[in-house]
DNA sequence: TTGTATGCGTTATCAG
DNA sequence: CTGATAACGCATACAA
């Protein structure tokens, strides 16, 4: 039997000869209602197939119990792990998660932010699009006291929460690791710098590691790519390999970049790690499949998501009056595998 | 300046000396409103920082313009591509997407389904949890004419839309490919069968391909794993390699299974594809990184997502009175790479 | 073309 | 402990 008619608290009230307010309270286990009534109501609710309408409740309460997540794409191991962390944390607290992809487009990001606001999400977690150069479109959230957390690719100067890793330190560590393996001519493959500047920070770490270890910084060894495609990485790598002073180490700012580089190096018959040591960034699943296994920097994606969600939840429970929006920095470490180990 | 007070159509009405109904219609570009008023209203809306409250509209309209997606996990290349397909299609139509993960648990699936219903999503796309053995928890959607689409891991008998690949045919093709390469003793590594029976279909295809090519079916060559962990796959593979009649081909029902198997085979110093040819399933990014590159079955994940979303959208536009819920079957093909090519 | 009145399903306030 | 009623913000039927 189809019931084309939604069962509401009115129906329950009528059936049980009670007021809707009593039904509502009973359903929510309000303390001022006798256990007897609560039981009676709940039983009837199940019997009649009552399902609460969150929409109505949200409208009334002015809170939706959903967290909006906006990021460049979800089809990337790192980001889908991050979402997973958000989702699990939110779910435990009874929150839903709506996910949107900006596809690294500023325009889409702006539109989706509007849309999230119109949906009256309780909080927002965002990883900026590659294209994004300003964050004025987020003002609507801060203006309306909707907790906002930037994660991973975050603006450098902003009066909002930020959850991230120390990209500078990680870049330093990665480079230092190669130096420790005996590399003295280290190249850096990275992406053209952006507003969220995770890449530029990694690069700074790279440069400082070189300097502090008395190694020269050679701009010809630094490559800024527009995309992460295999082709672009291959030509860039080939260029490096053709240099007079061919690098003996490569620090790639992402695992896919590193993997493409390795594939290219191998094609040329150059030995890894003996002739060129390689380290990537992110600890993608792929890094354990490429041969030799890729050394990389661990990136606590799921924890970033979890931390972001927790900040939102905490703020929703007890809105911070003071404007202290702290920055959460999670730890990273070098994972040394065969692509760099020269024992 | 913070504005702690939401701007509503009432505010606009007051400011412009118009009725709220006029405002509402103007905002929606209703044809019965003069262009002049429309312009005036829209301008004022922007000026005053008006943002539509989707919640209220949804409650009134009884439609939320959001699609619920429930699947085992999003942190898997195949599934995150699928979501991506849903999301892009939905976004174009002005729909939002809420995503939930069952983590392959029946209990979680049931709870989340309730939650989706309570949120009054306009439609639902679901890939069943591994544990799930029945689908009575979805009855609430069909009972209330909320379009429901099962995708990929779908129930065999159900009066709902299904979007999937032909797992039987794909299993057959994969096996036939190995036979064509000269394999005569082909093992099959798969997962313990489930209600959504994608694996059992693939296995049937495998068996029929053997039979129709006059090859014996040997149960010792068929391995059913409980998980996709490397360890479990490794021990299973070792068992196969220790058999008296060692297989000369392996059809793994998933790329990760195939990759683990390859890694194990290589450890033993057995040559791929000369001594053992391997084919996987899904065309995960990983399959192009393992060496030798993994032959596999293409799986149109994003298209599955897109097709599912389109069915939901079409149904929302013009609800199907008749109960014809068709099954959409997308195409797959063999992608032959080095792990199986024995030219 | 515009205005009036009402309801969508809840919850909170205030009374009893 | 329970009940009556208003309000959340919007969109529609009906009137003008």
Question: What's a quick, concise take on this entry?
Answer:
Chain A is 42% helix and 15% strand. Chain A is α/β, with parallel strands linked by helices and 343 residues long.
Structural summary, described in words:
2 copies of one chain form a homodimer. With about 350 residues, chain A is an alpha/beta fold. Chain A has 3 domains: about 10-50, 434 Repressor (Amino-terminal Domain); about 65-165 and about 300-330, Response regulator (Rossmann fold, 3-Layer(aba) Sandwich), CATH 3.40.50; about 165-300, 3-Layer(aba) Sandwich (Rossmann fold). Chain A contains 12 helices and 12 strands. Chain A has helices at about 10-15, 20-25, 35-50, 55-60, 75-90, 105-120, 140-145, 165-180, 200-210, 230-240, 255-265, 300-315; strands at about 65-70, 95-100, 125, 150, 160-165, 185-190, 220-225, 250, 275-280, 295, 325-330, 335. The first copy, chain A, has a 6-stranded parallel sheet with strand order 2-1-3-4-5-11, sandwiched between helices. In chain A, helix 9 (about 200-210) links the parallel strand 6 and strand 7 (about 220-225). In chain A, helix 5 runs parallel beside helix 12 (about 300-315) and helix 8 runs parallel beside helix 9 (about 200-210). In chain A, about 45% of the residues are buried. The mean pLDDT of chain A is about 95. Chains A and B meet through helix 4, helix 5, strand 2 and helix 6 of A and helix 4, helix 5, strand 2 and helix 6 of B. The structure holds a DNA duplex (16 and 16 nucleotides).
């Amino acid at each position: 039997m189809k019931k084309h008619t939604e069962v509401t608290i009115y129906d329950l009230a009528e059936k049980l000869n009670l007021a809707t307010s009593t039904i509502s309270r009973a359903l929510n286990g309000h303390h001022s209602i006798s256990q007897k009534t609560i039981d009676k109501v709940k039983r009837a609710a199940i019997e009649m197939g009552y399902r609460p309408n969150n929409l109505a409740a949200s409208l009334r309460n002015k809170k939706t119990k959903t967290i909006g997540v906006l990021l460049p794409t979800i089809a990337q191991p790192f980001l889908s792990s991050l979402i997973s962390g958000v989702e699990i944390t939110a779910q435990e607290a009874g929150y839903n998660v709506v996910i949107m992809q900006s596809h690294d487009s500023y325009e889409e990001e702006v539109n989706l932010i509007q849309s999230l606001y119109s949906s009256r999400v309780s909080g927002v977690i965002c990883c900026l699009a590659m294209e994004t150069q300003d964050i004025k479109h987020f003002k609507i959230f801060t203006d309306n006291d909707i907790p906002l957390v930037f994660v991973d690719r975050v603006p450098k100067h902003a009066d909002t929460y930020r959850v991230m890793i120390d990209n500078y330190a990680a870049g330093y560590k990665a480079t230092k690791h190669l130096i420790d393996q005996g590399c003295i001519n280290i190249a850096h493959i990275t992406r053209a710098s952006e507003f969220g500047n995770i890449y530029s920070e990694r690069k700074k770490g790279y440069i400082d590691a070189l300097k502090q270890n008395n190694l020269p910084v050679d701009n010809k060894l630094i490559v800024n790519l527009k995309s992460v495609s295999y082709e672009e990485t291959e030509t860039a790598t080939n260029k490096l390999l053709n240099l007079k002073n061919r690098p003996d180490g490569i620090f790639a700012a992402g695992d896919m970049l590193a993997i493409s580089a390795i594939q290219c190096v191998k094609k040329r018959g150059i030995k890894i790690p003996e002739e060129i040591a390689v380290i990537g960034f992110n600890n993608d699943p792929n890094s354990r499949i490429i041969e030799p296994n890729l050394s990389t920097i661990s990136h606590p994606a799921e924890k970033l998501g979890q931390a972001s969600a927790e900040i939102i939840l905490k703020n929703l429970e007890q809105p911070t009056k003071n404007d202290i929006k702290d920055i959460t920095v999670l730890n990273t470490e070098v994972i040394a595998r065969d692509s760099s180990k020269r024992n």
